[in-house]
Amino acid sequence: MKIDAHIHYNSTKTNLLEYGVKKDIGYLSIVTDVPGFPSVDDQLKTVVNLKKAYGDYLNFTTTFSCRAWGSQKWLETSLNTIKKSLDMGAIGVKIWKNIGMSIQDKNGHYVMIDHPSFEPIFKYLEENDVVVLGHNGEPRNCWLPMDEMTVESDRDYFAAHPEYHMYLHPEIPDYDQQLEARNKVLKRHPKLRFVGLHLASLEWDVAKVAAWLDYHPLAMVDLAERICHLQYQTLTHWQKVYDFFINYQDRIIYGTDFIMHHDQEVSGLNAYLDDRYQLDWDFFAKDNTMTAPEVKGTFKGLGLPPSVLQKIYTTNAKNTYRI
User: Fold this and answer.
1) Which residues contact 303 (CB under 8 A, 6 or more apart)?
2) Any alpha helices (H) in the chain, and if so which ranges?
3) CA-angle at 107, arms to 104 and 108, nearest 5°
4) What is the Cα–Cα distance from 79 to 121, expressed in whole angstroms?
5) Strand partners, 26
6) Which sequence spans correspond to the domains of the chain?
7) Helix, strand or coil for residue 286?
8) This prediction's pTM
């Protein structure tokens, strides 16, 4: 079984799981407190019910809401949510970018992930050996002007959503501040098992990812929605990207960040997934010249050994999330 270890299952529709059974793909659904998503409770209810029907083809992580951050009972409520979710079968806890990029204190200061209010949560997770999944900050492109962005998908997205283009919002803590706050938390909690989602927001340079992994020996990274950044780097530094996967083959987890939502069109879902998974597989498994919609120009696939592919697509997720 391959594992797509980063999706969001926000629908009672079972089409994605039926596809997974047919193709022998397991999923990790990451519950996240995102505006526009169902509530945390509703997300948990959905994945718990689906897991009862689909067993090992679906696992899930939990999170806590920051919508009442700063209130008297916020911490107690958050810890209770985490504990109840773990009892329900959650296998990790997600920390999202709203911490650092949207939550503000009463003085209008942005609340970073290293704020003292979060310390009891990290202490509990460290002491109980619960893996933390961190989406901290955004791609470096988010803080760059449009003409300096590296991949087409970022240019298209931030052109359509200027409210999320941090280059236009200098009042929000910048790229380096977001990652520095995360790294301070990891330094305070050296036994915390941590997955830096989206290549730990260091997607623009595999050497930076490697240095971060070296500094945090218990950390892992996942590839969700950042594979195009690796493809972009292979245009000029193929060997560097290849060597990164060889040297860190035990610390990289495959995922897509696919969202299964209530309005998801299901008629073309199988064809879409076939194309998406095949394009990713071709990049990692073959060494042919290829193209991708997000990258200008042609690049060469990595042609990784089967043993490395097995780790990236299956073993590392199983070991990290104890599936």
Assistant:
1) 242, 285, 286, 287
2) 15-23, 40-54, 74-88, 98-101, 119-127, 152-160, 175-188, 197-200, 206-215, 227-247, 269-285, 306-310, 316-321
3) 40
4) 7
5) 3
6) 2-321
7) coil
8) 0.97
CATH topology of domain 2-321: TIM Barrel (3.20.20)
What is the token pair recorded at 254?
């495959």
The distance of Cα 169 from the centroid of its chain, to the nearest Å, equals 23
Ramachandran region, residue 214 (left: φ > 0; alpha: ψ -120 to 50; beta: rest)? alpha
Coil, strand, or helix at residue 251?
Answer: coil
For the segment 175-226, what is each residue's pLDDT rounded down to a tens digit?
A: 999 999 999 999 999 999 999 999 999 999 999 999 999 999 999 999 999 9
Whether the pLDDT of residue 85 is over 90: the answer is yes
Residue 174's CB is within 10 A of a number of other CB atoms, namely: 15
Q: Which amino acid is at 22?
A: K
Distance (Å, whole) CA 31 – CA 9: 8
* Nearest C-alpha neighbor of 112 from the set 89, 142, 82, 134: 134
Give yes or no for a contact between 317 and 251, defined as CB atoms under 8 angstroms apart: no
In whole angstroms, what separates CA 89 from the centre of its chain? 20
Closest CA to 140 of 113, 122, 167: 167
The sign of the dihedral angle between the CA atoms of 292, 282, 275, 249 is negative
C-alpha to C-alpha distances, 144 to 102, 158, 175, nearest whole angstrom = 19, 10, 10
Say if CB 61 and CB 96 are below 8 A apart: no
